[in-house]
Amino acid sequence: MKDSVNILFVCGYGVGSSVMLQTVVKKALAKYDFSFDMEHTAAGEVGGFTDWADIYA
């Protein structure tokens, strides 16, 4: 079993929406007792995270 959940936030337009969403989700998940790692990237870079990410947002 994994120690943490990996969440990847993807932005398609380069305006920072993935960073904003990551911030909101991080704040919401902070009250739960489980470990998670988060990254954000552009849509064109998603292929580099396919082995890492458990959840795409």
TrEMBL record:
<dbReference type="InterPro" id="IPR003501">
    <property type="entry name" value="PTS_EIIB_2/3"/>
</dbReference>
<protein>
    <submittedName>
        <fullName>PTS sugar transporter IIB</fullName>
    </submittedName>
</protein>
<keyword id="KW-1133">Transmembrane helix</keyword>
<dbReference type="InterPro" id="IPR036095">
    <property type="entry name" value="PTS_EIIB-like_sf"/>
</dbReference>
<dbReference type="GO" id="GO:0008982">
    <property type="term" value="F:protein-N(PI)-phosphohistidine-sugar phosphotransferase activity"/>
</dbReference>
<keyword id="KW-0813">Transport</keyword>
<keyword id="KW-0598">Phosphotransferase system</keyword>
<dbReference type="GO" id="GO:0009401">
    <property type="term" value="P:phosphoenolpyruvate-dependent sugar phosphotransferase system"/>
</dbReference>
<feature type="transmembrane region" description="Helical">
    <location>
        <begin position="6"/>
        <end position="25"/>
    </location>
</feature>
<feature type="domain" description="PTS EIIB type-2">
    <location>
        <begin position="5"/>
        <end position="57"/>
    </location>
</feature>
<keyword id="KW-0812">Transmembrane</keyword>
<dbReference type="Pfam" id="PF02302">
    <property type="entry name" value="PTS_IIB"/>
</dbReference>
<dbReference type="InterPro" id="IPR013011">
    <property type="entry name" value="PTS_EIIB_2"/>
</dbReference>
<keyword id="KW-0762">Sugar transport</keyword>
<keyword id="KW-0808">Transferase</keyword>
<keyword id="KW-0472">Membrane</keyword>
